[in-house]
Write a structure and sequence with these properties.
The chain is mainly beta and 133 residues long. Helices cover 3% and strands 42% of the residues.
Length: 133
């Protein structure tokens, strides 16, 4: 067993995020492991640019209210305890609702991602379906 040293919080780059977002590394496996996990915190209104993940992504919402939308699909409002699967290559974005901070735990296996355009205010403000029905 080994107690791992906590890495400093990283401010995420403006080229990939609108608004303020930060990440804390939870785990970054060493070869042959590909396991990785970050806690990602979004300020109200902050969101990732549209992107796709090489092996998919499974954010688990742990705090606040998240907005997640696949390209051309329905926008989803997710809450703590919700786990959302985005399959490999699916273009999508995710971020915080305009009036709540949001934190998700994001496990993944590769740094392979295609970063696309930023999400405009109209797309961000589109009607959404809540996971709390």
């Amino acid at each position: 067993m080994e107690l791992l040293t906590k890495q400093p919080t990283m401010k995420l780059p403006a080229q990939w995020f609108t608004g303020d977002a930060w990440a804390d590394v939870i785990h970054r496996g060493e070869e042959p492991s590909r396991a990785r996990a970050n806690a990602v915190r979004f300020a109200p209104g902050a969101r990732a640019a549209c992107h796709s993940d090489g092996l998919g992504q499974t954010p688990c919402i742990v705090e606040g209210v998240a907005l997640i939308q696949p390209r051309g699909g329905e926008s989803l409002q997710a809450h703590p305890g919700d786990v959302i699967w985005t399959p490999p290559g699916e273009e999508h974005w995710h971020g915080a609702a305009p009036d709540h901070f949001m934190t998700h735990i994001a496990p993944w296996e590769t740094d392979e991602a295609d970063w696309l355009e930023h999400v405009g205010d109209d797309e961000y403000a589109a009607p959404r379906t809540s996971t709390r029905r």
